[in-house]
């Protein structure tokens, strides 16, 4: 039997996306075959299409491939070694490629069971960014009442979740964005202060607001355009978390700069290392789902696409014009 899928066999712009009828995959011994209801659309999908993971050891997706690394749906069948889930279970997953399709095979270790209170579209919109923000706040930054943090790209999907989870932990949140409208988004999510980047002048604004101290933690997903100014915004012995490089990688960093900036700690974490086993995957998912259910976390779905107009979704996200999460709704057979 065949299924509809979005595949690539070369790297490039949205034009390399191909709609194909391909064989429904067979699950390996440790895999689960899921009928996909919805897939999240992420910058990681864009980077995969562009070839930024062509030689990655952490995320070894290779050509040709079916795109989509986050999704939700219902289990159809399971491999012989699978023990945690069974046919009919509602599930969600991330960092397993192939969700831009009607069916996907997912390793059992990356599967999270989905509460009935969470719809498939919300699950597909929340697990990747939610798990990312969860490990950044709880495991890397270890935010607590009285701590301070700076969130760059605060109107983006992960930025909005970071703000909300940081506030849940009792932190004071500074946020940056590229326009007044995006600053308003950050404030609506709970940011205590929101400001424009202004070519790095946010660092002076934060120093002024903190009586010269700086923040305990900076969450920097942009990279080249902000990282050195992030150093200036951090306190002595503060932590700078560079978890993305949307504006490009910093390739000329001398560790001496960290000392000169105040004996800073700089880390470049990866989600894969913080979803190392099935127990951790489920624990993070349950925390995110519980926050969604009790209303302390909001993840608005701002756009919905189908397999027929996925090129438009990629173009919108790549242009950074879209504020919030988009999902791909898979047509029912």
Could you say which structural class the secondary elements and strand pairing correspond to? alpha/beta
What is the name of the CATH architecture of the largest domain? Alpha-Beta Complex
The CATH superfamily of the largest domain turns out to be Medium-chain alcohol dehydrogenases, catalytic domain
Helix and strand run = EEEHEEEEEHEHEHEHEHEHEHEHE
In DSSP terms (H or I, runs of 4 or more residues), the helix count works out at 9
Number of DSSP E strands:
16
Average pLDDT, all residues: 95
Shape: globular
Percent range for β-strand residues: 25-35%
Distance between the termini: 12 Å
Computed Rg: 20 Å
The overall number of domains is: 2
Q: Enumerate the spans where pLDDT stays under 50 for 5 or more consecutive residues.
A: none
Account of the protein in words:
With 333 residues, the protein is of the alpha/beta class. The chain has two domains: 183 residues, Medium-chain alcohol dehydrogenases, catalytic domain (Quinone Oxidoreductase, Chain A, domain 1, Alpha-Beta Complex), CATH 3.90.180; 124 residues, Rossmann fold (3-Layer(aba) Sandwich). Helices cover 29% and strands 27% of the residues. Strands 3, 5, 6, 7, 8, 15 and 16 form a seven-stranded mixed β-sheet that branches. It is globular. The mean pLDDT is 95.
